[in-house]
UniProtKB/TrEMBL annotation:
The keyword Heme does not apply. The lineage of its organism: Bacteria, Bacillati, Bacillota, Bacilli, Lactobacillales. The chain crosses the membrane at residues 12-34, 55-78, 98-118, 130-148, 160-179, 191-210, 216-233, 240-261, 267-291, 312-340, 346-369. GO terms for cellular component: plasma membrane. It comes from Lactococcus fujiensis JCM 16395. It is found in: Cell membrane. This is Polysacharide biosynthesis protein.
């Protein structure tokens, strides 16, 4: 049987296994290479690792992904209609090979990987890292069709078509924002890689079953990247022997951003909301960090220990337990994004409202924004607690009454015998006898 007679599904499965194996074999080798080149993450006040750890774990993921997409997939994947090509009046479709499709994304990813690797070795300034991300994002905009070109206003509104300069700004902002959001959650063993796998699998399902374009390039690329990550994952899960580093976290964030951007052609409200939901964990953590630092009058780029994974550890979760909880939250976001695809307009709106309400309650309970910043919980308490409501209405001091009520409810009353002048002598004599007995012993 020749290779052309093998079903595509079987050929793609073999390619996925090869991708996984390359990453699986190269990752332990990279632990030694990282130490040799100085890509090591040393412990500090913000880090959870207690000993120096090799980073640059994104390199084997990148190598496995590049080898598969540039060497293996072009052999088995046939040319597809170019995105946006309908044939016109001539009826002739413009075809695009997989190699031509993926090459600009690989070059953009290489720019990101080089930026991250230099940062893992020498620690670049935030401005230099941002510059590398903007260059990669600009390259993708100029040489691919992954652009934020237009937006359909919901509820029967018009289709807004953006001029090129505005499309460029929106697209670069989208790529840079999601890239950094993924990078920010890389704080625990297996957290960033696991959340990325959950997000990518969901994007793969949505792109294959729900996107209007019949182009198969996008889901194939997504599942190939998932295989590369899974080969790395056993070495990164707790207890990890290697970290993703900025090399890996930035690369995963970049690829997720450009993949999600490809679903925004002729973007409807659902098309825009879907990737935001899928990336609910990193985006929420990033937005809350920005709000928190603004409220604390800190720089947006300043570091703190109130990210979601920090708060779960502070609440008593184990390292592995905190990671599994965040996996679960990412899975919930992913499930909601899939349900949204088959919901009608009213159902979709109600689903999003319920999601935002539950998310706000969770944020306040965990304390991501900081101490005593719980407006929704205070509002619900105002509705459901008549004593608290009367105190607020009559005294008008919201915060102090909340704190005092919290103290009263959290206090456990213990009955103690009442000591009066009549029995004081008796109590003192009993205490004296007790001390004498202890001295004898």
């Amino acid at each position: 049987m020749s290779i052309t007679q093998i079903p595509f599904t079987l050929k793609f499965l073999i390619v996925i296994i090869i991708t996984f194996s390359i990453s699986l074999v190269l990752t332990p080798i990279m632990t030694f290479v990282s130490k040799a080149i100085g890509a090591v993450d040393n412990p500090n006040a913000r880090r959870v690792n207690k000993k120096p750890m090799p980073t640059a774990g994104g390199v084997p993921i990148f190598i496995a992904f590049v080898f598969t997409t540039l060497v293996l997939l072009p052999v088995i994947v046939h040319s597809q209609p170019l995105v946006g090509s309908s044939g016109g009046k001539t009826g002739v479709l413009h075809l695009q090979s997989y190699l031509n499709y993926i090459l600009p994304f690989v070059i953009g990813g290489a720019i990101i990987v080089i930026t991250g690797l230099i940062d893992d070795i020498k620690e670049l300034s935030p401005k230099m890292k941002l510059l590398g991300q903007i260059i990669a994002a600009s390259f993708v905009w100029f040489f691919t069709h992954a652009r934020f070109d237009n937006l359909k206003i919901p509820f029967g509104g018009p289709m807004l078509t953006f001029p090129a300069w505005l499309s460029f700004i929106f697209s670069v902002f989208w790529i840079v924002a999601i890239t950094n959001a993924i990078n920010l959650i890389d704080g625990l063993d297996g957290l960033c890689s696991g959340v990325s796998v959950i997000s990518l699998l969901t994007m793969g399902l949505v792109s294959y079953f729900f996107l209007p374009s019949p182009n198969i390039f996008l889901p194939i690329t997504i599942f190939t990247l998932v295989a590369a990550i899974l080969g790395f994952f056993p070495y990164n899960y707790h207890p990890a022997i290697i970290f993703l580093g900025d090399t890996g976290a930035l690369f995963l964030g970049f690829m997720i951003s450009v993949i999600s951007l490809q679903g925004l052609k002729n973007a409807t409200a659902v098309a825009v909301v879907t990737p935001l939901l899928i990336l609910g964990v990193p985006l929420t953590d990033t937005i809350m960090a920005m709000i928190r630092r603004k409220l604390n009058r800190q720089k947006i780029t300043s570091a703190d220990k109130r990210h979601l994974h920090h708060r779960l550890l502070a609440l008593g979760f184990t390292h592995r337990g905190a990671v599994l909880v965040i996996y679960g939250i990412a899975g919930i976001f992913a499930f909601i994004s899939i349900i949204l695809q088959v919901s009608n307009r009213i159902g979709g709106i109600l689903l999003l409202v319920a999601c935002l309400f539950g998310l706000e309650i969770f944020i306040e309970l965990v304390g991501i924004l900081g101490e005593n910043r719980q407006p929704m919980l205070k509002f619900l308490r105002f509705i459901g607690n008549s004593g608290y409501r009367d105190a607020v209405i009559h005294h008008g001091n919201y915060d102090e009454k909340t704190d005092s009520d919290n103290d009263e409810e959290d206090t456990i009353e213990i009955e103690r015998p009442l000591i009066t002048n009549d029995n004081l002598d008796n109590v003192e004599s009993k205490q004296h006898l007790s001390r004498v007995e202890k001295d004898k012993k």
